[in-house]
Amino acid sequence: MEELTGVVVTEYLERNAREFPDEVALVELNPDEPDKRRTSWKEFDLIQSERFKPYRREITWNVFNEKANRFANMLISRGIKKGDKVAILMYNCLEWLPIYFGVLKTGAIAVPFNFRYDAEEILYCAQLAEVDVIVFGQQFIGRIEVNAEPLSRNRLMIYVGDGCPDFAESYHTLVEDCSSRTPNVPLSLDDYGAIYFSSGTTGFPKAILHKHLSLSQAAEMERIHHATTRKDNFLCIPPLYHTGAKFHWMGSLVAGSKAVLLKGTKPQTILEAISDEQCTIAWLLVPWAQDILDALDRGDLKLSDYKLDQWRLMHIGAQPVPPSLIKRWLAYFPNHQYDTNYGLSESTGPGCVHLGMENVAKVGAIGIPGYRWECKIIDENGNAVKQGEVGELCVKGPGVMTCYYNNPEATAETIKDGWLLTGDMAMQDPDGFYFLVDRKKDVIVSGGENIYPVQIEDFIRKNEKVKDVAVIGLSDHRLGEKTAAIIEIKDGFTATKEEIDEFCMGLPRYKRPKEIIFADIPRNATGKIEKPKLRERYGAHRLVEQENKS
Asked: Cβ contacts of residue 246 below 8 Å, gap of 6+?
């Protein structure tokens, strides 16, 4: 196993600013905002100036680094030091990453907040992580304001945008006169670097503490897994608060290559961005890839309308990927490299297991251990299972979290002898590839049989009318649990319960859904199906129905 280089991620930024100062580092694209350069002056005069924001902005590596230094020096002037914690609550924008790196350069711990948090979740996470500073954008004034008094008590509140609220200080005013020189704060891989939060789909999230070792591991691994070079241009769509988006981007940081932050997930928006900016790598979530394919199937999009020859790699993560989707994708994009990335915030995001661009024939697997990672599958007693048997996937490597911050009990349950227990059920085939079977907590026990919803979901997705599907267990008097399939039908199609039942005859009898529900599938910001919401919604609904019948 190769050793880490010993380089903390801030040093890559310093190097890029030194060696490629005038090259573009980041581009921000926002199709929903007007652009003075693309609008006639007559039309532009009609736009209220305070509402105007550029459609496209960019910064060079030198400007990126200077902005990070200014923010770092401002924080230091306000007493922020090593080990303090700075929360970031913003949508993707050009300010996001310079602020993040500014925090790291002070030796403080960066604490990205999920932009979907409501007021109470923001307060909860601020208190759980014991943050000293909260940096927030315009869209979050209302949610911050609800708990402004407890949030601003003994905390520096920094607002990024116009019209600063009275309980905060303006980011732009604070940094404008600060030095752009690198602060003299020694950093090592053993220093704490970031706190991320679990997805929170089972209640309030847990705070996940990582050292700089984790951040560097993720960045170097991404560059190696996807062979990122200075010629590449990475399209980043998911939110930067999430480990997946940020550490996929950090492959570009290590390579010293350009990246585009795109606001928008519509198929046309994605293809236009790839075409206009000449992106070579795009990381998509399953729903976005599905939407692109559906639009191509319907003829709403034509590949000939875009410049896509330079696009070499499409990779997917954050959830199980249906093999049928990739088969369809490669039919439209036969020259694409493809990769699946598996991971979790506790392992610094994606890549602890990855398919590998050379292993497209193994589509359906999550892959093999990633760069500097080890994997094993264990039973309920912690013993390794035989190859081909289902058990809990465990991973070990330099990207494993230090702990759940302020939660030693949960840490002890999740990390055992250096191994991270993922909570995912998996099996390994004779070639050494790992296949995700399901979440441990999502396994349905029906009539004494273990049923893995992902297997049923993959089968149902093969139906040409099905856009998305989630299989959950509902309480059943006779079986204990019964399988229910919540199915979202593609636009322009209709389907009946009888049609789905007939289609599912291709499944073993015990795996066939006992109940079919047609409805939209809720997913969180990282594309994961929110099954707790579905269980709560339809489980409670069915109990009421049963009580009414009795």
From this structure: 100, 112, 240, 349
Query: What CA–CA distances, in Å, run from 491 to 103, 238, 297, 301, 376?
Result: 45, 24, 12, 15, 41
Lowest mean pLDDT among 88-102, 396-410, 479-493: 479-493
Return the structure tokens found at 229.
């070079």
Pick the CATH number of 9-264 from 3.40.30.10, 3.40.50.920, 3.40.50.12780, 3.65.10.10: 3.40.50.12780
**What are residue 120's phi and psi, to 5 degrees?**
-70, -35
Going by the DSSP 8-state scheme, the letter that residue 360 receives in this structure is G
CA distance 84 to 479: 52
Q: Is the pTM of this model over 0.85?
A: no
pLDDT digits (tens, 9 = 90+) for 43-59: 444 444 443 444 899 99
Query: To the nearest whole number, what is the mean pLDDT of the chain?
Result: 88
Share of the chain above pLDDT 70, in %: 89
For residues 352 and 332, give the distance between their C-alpha atoms in angstroms, rounded to a whole number.
29
How far is 273 from 279, CA to CA, in rounded Å?
A: 8
Q: Of 455, 448, 450, which Cα lies nearest the Cα of 480?
A: 448
Q: What is the pLDDT of residue 319?
A: 64
Q: Band of the pLDDT at 500, cuts 50, 70, 90?
A: very high
> Domain 444-549, what fold?
GMP Synthetase; Chain A, domain 3 (3.30.300)
pLDDT at site 357: 92
Q: Flag whether pLDDT at 42 surpasses 50.
A: no
102 and 86 Cβ atoms separated by less than 8 Å: no
Q: Which of 426, 353, 414 is nearest to 387 (CA)?
A: 426
Q: Give the residue from 360, 359, 425, 372 showing the smallest Cα distance to 398.
A: 372
Q: How many residues does the chain have?
A: 550
